[in-house]
Amino acid sequence: MLYCVEMSGHGxxxxxxxxxxPNGEERGxxxxxxxxxxxxxxxxxxxxxxxxxxxxxxxxxxxSPQNHxxxxxxxxxxxxxxxxxxRLGVQRICFTGGEPFVNRDVLxxxxxxxxxxxxxxxxxLAIAPVEILxxxxxxxxxxxxxxRALRARHGGRLRLRITLESPCPERHDALRGKxxxxxxxxxxxxxxxxxxxxxxxxxxxLLALQSDEEIREAxxxxxxxLAVEVNLIENLLESGHELTxxxxxxxxxxxxxxxxxxxxxxxxxxxxxxxxxxxxxxxxIEGEIRYYPCxxxxxxxxxxxxxxxAESLRRVYLAHKNCYAYCLKGRGATCRxxxx
Length: 340
Ligand code: SF4
Ligand code: SF4
Description:
- This protein is α/β, with parallel strands linked by helices.
- It is 31% helix and 16% strand.
- It has a single domain, classed as TIM Barrel (Alpha-Beta Barrel).
- An 8-stranded mixed beta sheet has the order 11-10-9-8-7-6-12-13. Strands 1-2 form a two-stranded antiparallel ribbon. A two-stranded antiparallel sheet has the order 3-14.
- The relative contact order is 0.18.
């Protein structure tokens, strides 16, 4: 029996997804974390928008200076969602994009700072520790005074994850654009000088170096005397610019692996280890705030979990190609920071 859910017309998980294979094996699923008093949220992700000053070759959200598909989230519209996450005991709030430090006004030179984002940051920090994922290139530097003030008020509750694709400048620039390595390295040094411990992020499949030790040492050598952490993403996401790049280079994306309820034991991974168990992700699409299971899946109505956090805390079927390709394959990747 091939059991596929009909589209309801309104969209929403698991509309349009097949929940069993022809041989009857059932689609794997993950239920939300629960505590003694009901559902619990550990990580809240906020995708600030798909606008970015860069257009990296492998960007899975296809972000660029022209991409507005994921819209900018204003503080006033985010605030009630941060409050709701606080009531459910959120332990970490992560802002990503696109580049969170830009909005249209900043990119087009009408404003120096993304004030809406700064307001959201200040509010979020009062609720839980915050991580910002940034390219660390240019626009974050307009916000250094604001970041210094936030650090003075909130200390280590505010962390910055900065992508440095490789300790080798040519490799970083080949993906992100000429000159970006030097700009990002400068920013990391400035932030470390301000007392932050920047978390340097890279994708392991794109690194020439293999062992954790070699990788850590190569990054540390770049920032001698400064405190930095290194965080690796274990699997690449085949979407956005990365998907275009694969096709244009004559390659074929990996086929979808049907994740069944047996996969967890076969692969030695527990449902509780996956982000859809303990996180939710806010995205603004066509003027509305919507909830998704994780930041790996975006702008796909069949994974839309609803308009509120409460509504979103329900079963997630692992029916996206990236469920296996990103989260379950090999060592498995996570969007959580894990220092190597
Ligand atoms: S990978 Fe990051 S920095 Fe590069 S285009 Fe995408 S969002 Fe921007
Ligand atoms: S991509 Fe990963 S975290 Fe997201 S729904 Fe699939 S398994 Fe869960």
